[in-house]
Amino acid sequence: MSDPLVAVIDLDLPGATISRHLYGHFAEHLGRCIYGGFFVGEDSAIPNEGGIRLDVVDALRAIRIPNLRWPGGCFADDYHWRDGIGPRESRPRMVNSHWGDVVEDNSFGTHEFMHLCEMLGADAYVSGNIGSGTVREMSEWVEYLTRDDDSPMAALRRDNGRNEPWRVPFWGLGNEAWGCGGNMNAEHFANLARQYGTYVRDHGDNKVYRIAAGANTDDYRWTETLMKALAHLGCAHDPRGFYQALSLHYYTINGEWADKGDATRFGLDDYYVTMKRAQRMREVVRGHANVMDSYDPLRRVGLVIDEWGTWWNVEHGTDPGFLYQQNTLRDALVASVHFDIFHDYADRLVMANIAQTVNVLQAMILTDPDTGALVLTPTYHVFRMNVGHHDAAALQVRLKGQERTRQVEGEEIPLLSVSASIKDDTALVSLSNLDAAEPQTLVLDLRGREVAEFSASVLTAGDLQEHNTPERPDAVAPEAHDGVRAHPDGLAVILPPHSYVTVSLRLA
Ligand code: AHR
User: Fold this and answer.
1) Which among 198, 300, 382, 433 could bridge 335 via Cys, Cβ 3.0 to 4.6 Å?
2) What pLDDT is stored for residue 3 in this prediction?
3) Model's pTM, two decimal places?
4) How far is residue 421 from each of residues 346, 380, 444, 465, measured CA to CA in Å?
């Protein structure tokens, strides 16, 4: 029998802090994310506060949602914020051209979003319109939200019923400017980001962290252009430059955009292709981080992955423009693999936002359009199991021994993904066994501190295709894991096939 694989973890050598904002979320005016997802209106039979579903808020508070990005996505560059304030009955309507060509009545606007953030205890990440909006419009929106005197926009906010300014720490300068956000080239957008960023002002003590719309997948040239646009003026070393971060979008898709495969009906080969594409996030982050390092070795400019996750074909019978998809154990493993990568790049990544929180793409929560029933997805459970990583210090994990791999599309991919962190006297180790058929045993060689107590949780199911529905809401849900034993070097952990396991260590 071959020796088991060993993961060496030095508990006394904490690394970069894993920002809780890496566990961020995204809510767009798209399909049933806002309407029917977060917002049901005050007259709904579903318990709500100001039209916002209380069960959705409770579920997201339980995973300590740190921030929420809104109103898009592509929608952001079509959105004119003044249409979404004032009495609801007199708000103008618009066409949501990107998503289903439906008429948007603007009943969920700035006040509703900020109320939602307050209920969630989450920081607001407002995505400003560069594609079709003016500099003045963006500048006035920030003033409206954050200014505390009798300025014209602060007065308008008060007229609309809100006295105190809100705190808005994160601001997006455009979205996918290379595509739906204006089809620009990088140089043109870099100039606009500098221009718009200039007028997104800090009012009072509200300090805005401006995030320029970044690259698609491996478009390293886009990142280089945005970094040069800062370096030219010495701003890469000035945290209060025109923008403090760049974004990046990378989605895990299996096939082509025209046929991305089904969320629940997939075979073994499809599963492994998904695991390969999910792990590609590491190469993509490394590529952008390398470019950024060459301009900003002190890592003062942040990288924000403000859209990531799986993107399958929509569920049969649903509007193709609404991007509604189910969520299986496979999606959960995509999430756990992503978080390991994010932890490894904690010194450059300042935020990440899964797309999208409710009823769209890789959602945390699905709601039934007829009954309103709420279901927590397998992905939700990964977020919950990882709460201990929020604001913890990353720990390096060194693997010793023969790692299990598999040939997928001509490449060997690892079948184990691991990361670890420490906060005060607690360490958390995350372990994903991507092998669909076989268990794996891993020895945690824990050095530098004594372990007083341990406990473990496991997320798995009989089939990879398993998912939660109103009839079977806990088909995929975490359970206590009894597969951890003391070992002369630390702990031996048995990982069931296709499983996600977390081991929590209380240190002496
Ligand atoms: O998340 C769905 C869409 O994907 C967003 O609106 C857009 O930014 C991206 O292409």
Assistant:
1) 382
2) 79
3) 0.97
4) 11, 20, 13, 30
